[in-house]
Fold these 2 entries.
Entry 1:
Amino acid sequence: MLLSRTCPACKTGGTQLRKNRYSQGDWVLKECLSCGFVFLENPPDYATLQGQFPWENTSGIQNEARRKSYSRSENVVRSAIRGVRSLTNTVIRRNKHVSLGYRYFRQGWIVDLGCGLGNFGPLPPSCKLLGIEISNQIVADARPIFESRGGRIIHADVLSGLQSLEAASCDGALVESYLEHEVQPAEVLRELSRVLRAKSAIILKLPNYACWNRRVRGKKWCGFRLPDHVNYFTPNTLRTMLGQQGFEIVKFTFLDRLWTNDNMWCVARKREH
Ligand SMILES: [Zn+2]
């Protein structure tokens, strides 16, 4: 079954939503004229997504199709962007969550939203990972990995998984390559804020819709994965949504949201009040 969404950021609907030129086939991307948020209006619901479009299948197919679609001139632009990016990546450590985890997490349970196989770097030894994952196959594979490290995994969609946790029972969160997939990002962030203790940090990584590569590549930008990616955040819309759901930005510098990078990194913290 396909959903029909209003703007996930400000809940505006109807004529305040304009069809975005990056819509593809049956997948309709909309831009909210009230707040500027770009999103997939008609994503599959969780059950359909799991049954017909599991991420572990569709991402490989789309990568291959994208690779074959490059023209010669596009390859020149891509290699130029890659050149700039490799320079900047020597300055910014690619494996950022390792150092960020050590810097911002102290102890206790760290919730990993849409945890996949637990593709995390080392965290401080006093931290334990609590993964939430919807995919049957991934949970089966990930459970022994999490448990061998003293953590555990909840098999559920992220919103239900968070709702099953007690208030103020967790001490941090990893939100990596997840928020772009979530049909209810504001509700999830609000629920995450409830389960975190005050001042707990969350580390986010997600595609940056405002990056140069999206402007150059258009529909072929690697950030467009339909119907997997249902939200297209810019630094501004990310900042706004985090603020509305009880978080304050801790670290979101120019280097964390470079126009040459497809992804952006952000560290936020649950506000005290
Ligand atoms: Zn909106």
Entry 2:
Amino acid sequence: MMGKRDPRQIEFGDFQTPDALAEQVVSVLKARGVKPASVVEPTCGLAAFIIAAVRGFGSARRVIGLEINADYFAKADARLLNEPRRPVVDLRLADFFSFDWPVVIRELPEPVLLLGNPPWVTSSGLGAMGGTNLPEKSNFQGHRGLDAITGKGNFDIAEWILIRLLEAASGRRATLAMLVKTSTARRVLSHAWRFKMPIERAAVYEIDAANHFDVGVSACLLVCDLGPSPGPTEADLFDLDSPTVHKGTIGYRDGALVADARAFDRLRRFIAEGDGDDALRWRSGVKHDCSAVMELRRVGDGVFLNGLGEKVRLEPDFVFPMMKGSDVASGRVRLGERWMIVPQRSTSDDTSRMCETAPRTWDYLVNHGEALDRRGSSIYRKRPRFAVFGIGPYTFSPWKVAVCGLYKRLAFATVGPMEGRPVVFDDTVYHLSFDTEAEARTVAELLNSADGREFFNAFTFWDAKRPITVDVLRRLDLRGFARACGKESCLVGRSIDTREENGLF
Ligand SMILES: C[S@@+](CC[C@H](N)C(=O)[O-])C[C@H]1O[C@@H](n2cnc3c(N)ncnc32)[C@H](O)[C@@H]1O
């Protein structure tokens, strides 16, 4: 993981490319058939790419390098002194954002290669440090479709630079080849495909960023070949260290990026329309934002230990067996160990009634009222005291199929009641709710089947912080999928509202 860094290094997103990596990139590009007449390195730092390019691309008649940092510029200049092909290099101490890129690129001989490793920083990261290394506001706001990629408030500088360069090079024979965070590469591709930029062919080569840059993020070499018209909205995936071994294909389908274009194309008939089937709706686990008070371990009959190390005797009414995301993901369930206080059955329930129905639990919550009242999230404002979220009749259904959003593998677990009480989950878990064990087991089997996993894999980018999202889960038309697998009759499909009466308490 990243050690302590100089704030200036952060402001300028400064991660210099090792020479060996720059050489490796150039040789992969050559193997792809890249033979540039001119090369542009827009933020060249210590010139690793400039040197690799002048040595590797004998075809390059012009090589332009820009760098904002005077110290780096001087060092880059010195490094180039003894290069036999120094005369083709035009090194400039300049700011990327002050350049008229369409004009610069228009004047270069074709094919043009835009090569480098732009700053790894976001505008809000800069703002937090008082940094100023940002594009001019007027430029920035006039940029086509930029709101869509920046979400207005925060944006990734590398993403901005790449889109700017792709736009500037559109209409020319050019290749963009840049080292960026994988998430940046995906956003750039998504933007380019959305706006029908003339990318004929694209590829993503994953790199070992921890090894090369000492950072704990997923990073890659993004390659986009520009031509007269757009090609398929797909990019092939490779590892830079095994550049001929095809690992998969990401793509742009129905207005969104998909992680596996082939799987998507094969299984697209199972995509749910609209909001889907309410009785088979994925829900998040319970959100309470106060685990030290609300999550407990049972140490005796009706006696629990909270996260503060306090022993407390509680009525059974509002205490439920719970599973955390890690329990669901690992399948190592030790039911009966963890418990959660769920003071409501719906978010509008008046919790103060507990004072009479479960006075010990009420006293416990009042005694920890300060911690609960301090919960920062606005969702608790104007709600009954001690309110929780992510609850409804589905929380109290006896049978569930659950998956943890934080883990890097798809494993759907069937979870049944314990001691006659429904099991609840923390808010890293998504689940479906059922009345019967048979329904839950059938659905878990369907979701864990090869096609079920492949469907979700088509939408899941495993390097994301929370790879499995409720939106991805909700994309599957479970009833249609069950029908195609000959299992529809196993889904009773009763409205979840009737489950409240049948649910176990
Ligand atoms: C991630 S480093 C990579 C440097 C070089 N491209 C390489 O591959 O080694 C980003 C570089 O961008 C430079 N930089 C940051 N903002 C810039 C700007 N507005 N214009 C030009 N260069 C800039 C930084 O000083 C730093 O050298």
